[in-house]
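Researcher: Please translate sequence to structure tokens.
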Amino acid sequence: MQKHWLVWLFTTLAMNAHAAAAGLQSFDIPADVGGPAIRVAVWYPSEDRPSPIMFGAYTLTAAKDGAISGRGLPLIVMSPGRGGTFVGNNDTAQYLANEGFVVVSLNHPGDTASDKSRIEELSIYLQRPRDVARVIDHLTGVAALSASIDPGRIGIYGFSRGGYTGLVAVGAKPNFLAGLPMCAGRTDKKCGELRAPQFSNLPMMHDHRIKAAVIVDPLTIFFTPESFSDVTVPVQLWASETGFDGVEPKAVDAINAALKAPHTLTKVEHSQHFSFTVVCPASIADQEPVICKDPPGLDRGQFHLRFNASVAALFRTNL
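Model: Translation complete:
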């Protein structure tokens, strides 16, 4: 494994020495009968000159609204974690764009940093996969970039609650009754919904357009071994050493054991849950230690060189 990671590292450094910065657009997918407006950021290959672009505390270097380079490009949808935003994995998105992918990362309505109105509602677990389908519809249909995207080459990347989202999108069937043990003695809205018999029978949104998935430290509380019988696309699983916020490393082991589709599992030593997100800007590193601080033995920046190269390899092989 160490030898392979060194190969990825040197390959990545060589490619980045010549790669142009990605193009970047941010816009709203309009509200429709499927749900409210969805804010997205889209990275893509571009030969235009990059410049600094501010998103809150994050400074991204990209060609803002630059011209897209190429045709027939594969599309990757990125679903962030609970309360996350489209900037949380921006280094991975830019890496993929430099590798020839169009990458769209979304802020799930009601479950993002600027709008947490549904973050504790069980219904968000139904909405999230629908958000993904609507994003794919827009990017392959009416978006200005659609002419450059091959609708037959679509992948998904999901982190944490986004990992749950990605698994459902590729065919996993959650069993919401499996979450009842966490509701012992609780009377909040989420547990009330869980106890309602009609909730567990609601249809889930699977998207057969998605041909490959990278699932990173996923939330698994609603999955059972039987949940994955309809997952047939290749899956690359990642697990942190410690987990966090309902994500348990042993639960990722259970997914690994249950999946019959081609898949791999990589456990990252000395990592915490947020080690998979982008290196924090210095301005917030001390204010957000849970997100920004890694255990001794892990350099997040160096790890992401290996991580991003592996993610790109999975999509390149299968799309």
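Researcher: Any highlights?
Model: The chain has nine helices and ten strands.
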